[in-house]
Amino acid sequence: MKSEEKILLYWSGEADDDLSREVEFLLETETWARDYLKELGELALGLDQVREPVRREGLLEEVLKGQRKEVILFPKRLILGGGLAAAVAIGVGWMVMNSENPNREEGLAENEVDREDVIPQQRKVRGISLSERILSSSEKFGEGRMGISQVRRNRERWRKIRIIENDKI
Amino acid sequence: MEMNEKGLVERYLSEGDTMALRELFGRYEDGLYRYLWQMLRHQQDSEDALQETFRKALKALPKYEDRGQFKSWLFRIGHNVSLDLIRRRKRVVGMSGEQEEFLSGEESGPAEMLEAKERIERLREAVKELPDAEREVVSLRLRADLSFAEISEVLGAPLGTVLARMHKAKQRLKANLVTI
Prior knowledge:
Oligomer: heterodimer
Mean pLDDT of chain A: 69
CATH superfamily of the largest domain in chain B: RNA polymerase sigma factor, region 2, helix turn helix motif
Low-confidence stretches of chain B: 91-107
Mean pLDDT of chain B: 82
Number of helices of chain A: 8
CATH class of the largest domain in chain B: Mainly Alpha
Helix content of chain B: over 70%
Shape of chain A: rod-shaped
Structural class of chain B: mainly alpha
Largest sheet of chain B: none
Number of strands of chain B: 0
CATH topology of the largest domain in chain B: Rna Polymerase Sigma Factor, Chain: A
Order of helices and strands of chain A: HHHHHHHH
Number of strands of chain A: 0
Largest interface: A-B, 33 and 45 residues
Helix content of chain A: over 70%
């Protein structure tokens, strides 16, 4: 390492004990070394007086706010994505539930008949919603076997509604 | 008591505590801006570069490995941002005199003020004329207050190279100031 570089480290406060002793000996014995150190001090002092323009306030804050937005946006994206997936799932589920599957319809009707004895106590609310659906003019019956099963199913429902109404009275 | 940088980084990463970030970046905001301004010589560019440095640092923070060199790590990002900006905008370092007139507001007489102003102006011009590699070292050491060891990390150059650049810069400044 050159002597000038040793003086630079000494001036910067980065010299270890050995290097410090070496530089201090140099400074005691060499005029050029003392001049070199003095010039470094003057340079630092001179540059210290050159001021950069005052920067706009809140530069860091703007970056942090942007960061916060990103953090908030991330869960939102997840929520939106999740909501969309849920909507699709519900839609698909609704289509499956309402698809015209004769076996499924019959199965439902049979189950409802089987549970007939517990309907008045446990299914009052469902009974009311069923009655609205049956009384609706938009209710259409299918043809053939499907139509017959629906008539039978609806007849059963009428009977249940009557039970519910009697129970209310 | 001042919390160490590792603790602040961990607090942000584990709890999302932006106060920890404010504390962490706030420590070096002034020095970083001074360095960027010295490199870019343009207020808007320096402000943009400062924000870009913080953004990049935020993004890279989860990958930051604590080795007690957060300052060097941050300044290295700032250094790369400033180089990118210079390349992208093709702006030659230098700008209108209006923006470069920033002298300290020392209380002194008109003659002394004028003399001081001229001296500082000569120094500023001389620094501006330095080769980029030397100006980087001078700015990081004297404006951003980094040690030579830290500058070595920021620039990815051996300590000997950094010291040699500083020495050359000093000699060049001395020669320029004598001839001006």
